[in-house]
Structure formats: C-alpha cells, structure tokens
Specification:
about 400 residues, four-stranded antiparallel sheet, three-stranded antiparallel sheet, about 50% helix, extended, disordered C terminus
C-alpha cells in the first residue's frame, strides 16, 4: 500500500523475479435482480400524513379527519409541561440540600473523589432543571397566546427582561457546549498523536524529491543502511534476524505520512548550538500504529536496531506549551533530565525528572493553557498561514 512503508525484505529482493499473485474471481451480487421487485406500495404513497399511512396499513379508510386528534395531543403536551413547575422546584431543593451536605461533610466522612463526583451531579441537576424550565416556560407562553389571543400584552420592560434572560442563558449554554466540544476534539488529537511517531533525519538522497513513492522506498532504504551500520555490516545488508524484526515492526504500521511536500537539506546543531548543513536531503516521516502501546514498542525497537530519532507529533500549540514547561523545569532543576507526560483527559502535564540516574516522578503537575485547544494547522504559526514555513522545519530542529 502506498500509505505504508516498504518492507526491508522486499527492498533487498528488488530486481529478482516476483511470483505473480492470482487476482481472484470477481464478485457479483446475485441478489441485485430482486431489488426491483421489492414492495414499495405503502412507502411510495405521496401526500399522506403519518396518521393516514398508519390507518391505511391497519386497513382503515381515508375519510377519517386527524385535525382534532393532533390538536388534542398538542394541548395535552402543553398542559403536561405547565404541570412540571413543581418537579423543577423539587429538583432545585434536592440539589441545594445535597450541596449543603457536601459543603459541611468532612473528608473522613466523604472521600474527596466521591465529593467531586457528587458535586458534578449537583451541577448537572441545576443545569438540567434550568434548561427544562426555560423550555417549559416558552411552551406555556405560546399555549396561553393561542388560547387567549385577545388578552392584554405584558409591559414592554417585562418582555425585554424575559428575552434578555433567555438569551443570556442560551448564550451561556452555547459557550459551555462549544468549550466542551473543543476539549473533546483536543483529547482526540492527543490520542491520535500518541499512537504515532515522527522520525527525523531519514536519508532521502542527495537531491530533493517530491514523489511520495520515492520517499516511501528511500525511507526503507535508510532504515536498512542504518541497521547494517549498527551491526557493522560492510556490505550494507543487515542480518536475517534484524530484517525479520524490522519487517515485523513495519507490518504494524497503519498509516505513513510526510511532514512536508518536498525533501529539504538536513540540518543539525553542533556542540555550540550552531546550524550545520548535512550532505543529504530529508523530511520528517510520521508512522502511525493501532494504539499507544504498539507505538512505544515499535519506537523502542527501531531505536535499538537502527538508532532512529523520533518524537510524538503533538499539534503546534500543545508542542509550544510543552516546550515552555520543559524550559521552566530545566531552570528549576538544572542538573536533571526532564520528561513530561500529557494527561489530556485532566487537561494537565505531569513533570518527571532524572538526576544522577535516579528518577523522581510527579515532581510537578502543570495545568495546560486554553491556547492548546486550538488544534488547527495555522494555530501559533509564524508568518502567513499556508507559507513555506511548515511543521517539517520546526519539528526537524527539535529532533
């Protein structure tokens, strides 16, 4: 497949006679001829209301009038909503009582986790009763206007006040819904990134290329050469055991992408943090797996067999927030190696550090800024959106 890497075995056997695979027998839907005989006599009736269709299906006549039935059902719905005021009041009383009990309860009586869950239930009861009460009020007002069309209208200031309150509640609900949707999308983006790895400094040849099939082949060529170099193979071919492990790893790849449309000259930093151009062209390669655990195992194997350098391809705004957290942590712990773990569901980052071979987990828990909720490709990008300054340049420098 074009979106998966070429296997090492296939690369090493390139040019040899290949066994032709049988394309198989073409499938044909033998039951398609029966679709034209399907009975559509009832569903094809046009101009019939749902009530009349139901009557027809039950063997009834067409002459029965449904206006009175529909009107009666609508009035019953209006009156039932008008009777919900007592239920809403009871819900608010229960929520207030539960909130008071939670506030006065000690941690020994109610565990903090249970208290947090009950607090969420109380908030949900308040929101639910508020939304239902607003809906019922609108329906009851509409019913009153229909039943008493000639009654005197309320004063303009009362109408304005009611409208303003309804609009404020509606705007608040819309804002809360939009924020919840952004957080949900953020969590999905993080999970997608954590099941993928971004590999740097793959040797894509001495000249720039833009053909994805060429990049796919040269990616496998680079892994093969690096694996042979790790094993000190002078012929450039790794051992059979290494080839089998590499192909086993690459077969787990579900998708392969490139962070850039054209390969660019590879750049690295020397000991003085100065840019040094290398003699080959490259592009960061993103390979995805079915889950995070598979990605971690594959990343460890490729690092051991080929010495590859990779990272998790978080979106730009989250990557910037992580870099700031790492920078601040290095200032606090100058002799430590800093490692961070993104907890997307809790919207925070946990900082771990290693000093003199000893790991210290959870030294800090840093909440993420709201800017990371912007997961678009243009978010946080310097210069004009869509310019040549792509993620490939930024991420390659980090590698």
């Amino acid at each position: 497949m074009a979106n998966k890497p070429l296997s090492v075995a296939a690369f090493l056997q390139e040019g040899l006679p290949q066994e032709k695979t049988n394309s198989g027998i073409p499938l044909k839907n033998r039951f398609k001829v029966f679709e034209k005989d399907r009975d559509r006599s009832l569903s094809s009736v046009r101009g019939c209301s749902p009530l009349k269709k139901r009557k027809l299906s039950e063997g009834g006549g067409e002459e029965e009038d449904e206006v009175g039935v529909v009107s009666q059902d609508r009035n019953k719905a209006f009156l039932s909503m008008a009777d919900e005021a007592a239920t809403f009041k009871k819900m608010r009383d229960i929520a207030s009582k539960l909130e008071a009990e939670l506030g006065s309860a000690a941690d020994s009586e109610v565990p903090p986790k249970l208290k947090e869950i009950l607090g969420g239930i109380v908030e949900w009861m308040r929101l639910a009763s508020g939304v239902q009460e607003t809906t019922a009020s609108v329906v009851v007002d509409s019913m009153n206007k229909v039943l008493s069309p000639g009654r005197k209208a309320r004063k303009d200031d009362w109408i304005a006040k009611d409208c303003q309150g309804g609009m404020e509640n509606r705007k608040k609900l819309e804002d809360d819904s939009a924020q919840a949707e952004r957080k949900k999308k953020f969590v999905l983006e993080v999970k997608e990134a954590e099941r993928s790895m971004l590999i740097f400094r793959t040797d894509m040849g001495k000249v720039p290329v833009m053909n994805c099939e060429t990049m796919r082949k040269r990616f496998t060529m680079d892994l093969t050469a690096k694996a042979a170099q790790v094993e000190n193979k002078v012929d450039g071919k790794p051992s059979v055991a290494t080839v089998q492990q590499l192909d086993d790893t690459l077969s787990m790849v579900t998708r392969m992408e490139y962070f850039g449309k054209v390969t660019k000259r590879s750049v690295r930093f020397d000991e003085d943090r100065r840019k040094v151009e290398e003699d080959f062209f490259t592009v960061p390669v993103k390979i995805s797996f079915k889950d995070k655990n598979t990605r971690e195992a594959a990343e460890s194997r490729l690092r051991g067999l080929c010495g590859t350098k990779s990272t998790t391809p978080y979106h730009r705004t989250l990557r910037a927030a992580i870099n700031n957290i790492v920078k601040e942590s290095k200032e606090k712990y100058p002799r430590s190696f800093i490692q961070v773990k993104v907890e997307a569901d809790k919207f925070r980052v946990t900082v771990n550090r290693r000093e003199e071979g000893v790991w210290y987990d959870g030294v800090e828990v840093v909440p993420l800024p709201d800017s990371v909720l912007d997961t678009s490709r243009e978010a946080g990008r310097p210069g004009k959106p869509g310019s040549q300054s792509t993620d490939a340049e930024d991420v390659q420098m980090q590698g």
